[in-house]
Amino acid sequence: MRESVDANTLLEHFIASRRQGLSPNTIAYYKACIQPFVNGFELTADGINSYLNSMTCNIGGKASYYKGIRAFINWLVRIGYLKDNPLRYVDPPKPEKKVLPSLTTDQVDYLIECADELRHKAIIAFFTL
Predict the structure, then answer these.
(1) What is the C-alpha to C-alpha distance for residues 69 and 45, in angstroms, rounded to an integer?
(2) Short-list 7, 13, 6, CA closest to 79
(3) Which of 38, 54, 87, 91 is 20 to 30 Å from 74 at the Cα level?
(4) Domain range enclosing 120
(5) pTM confidence score
(6) Co-location of 17 and 77 in the same domain
(7) Among 75, 79, 70, which Cα is nearest to 33's?
(8) What is the DSSP string of the chain?
């Protein structure tokens, strides 16, 4: 890894390398995810793990930060700044998948009864049963 380039300069080059027309929110997302990382942690697997472990947000938040860091690290590997991808040694945070509640049979029957047209009743029945 080359140490001669300032991490914030790398971040600016990374953002500039993204496709044209990035929204201001996407740019803010990259800066929020990556800037604290590059300013306080090494560009290594240990540095990435330390950064993620230092966060107080929930696992979903950590997964979001990881995605931004992953884009940055993969870019560093593509441009040749890093020879070895440290993400190979980092387990990504995995938020648990929420199972959304389903409708009861009585609720589905009520929806079908409330529909005015046979077509609407059929659509409700098709998507809920």
Answers:
(1) 11
(2) 13
(3) 54
(4) 99-129
(5) 0.70
(6) yes
(7) 70
(8) ---SS-HHHHHHHHHHHSPTT--HHHHHHHHHHHHHHHHHS-SSHHHHHHHHHH--S-HHHHHHHHHHHHHHHHHHHHTTS-SS-GGGG-PPP-PPPPPPPPPPHHHHHHHHHH-SSHHHHHHHHHHH-
Output the six-digit token pair for 69: 């860091």
> Which two structure tokens, joined as six digits, stand for 15?
């953002």
| Single-letter code of the amino acid located at 41 | F
pLDDT in tens, 48-103: 999 999 999 899 999 999 999 999 999 999 999 999 999 999 999 988 888 888 88
Rg of the chain in Å (alpha carbons) = 23
Distance CA 50, CA 54 (A): 6
Residues 123, 62 share a domain: no
- Give yes or no for a contact between 125 and 107, defined as CB atoms under 8 angstroms apart: no
Find where tokens 């803010």 sit.
Answer: 28
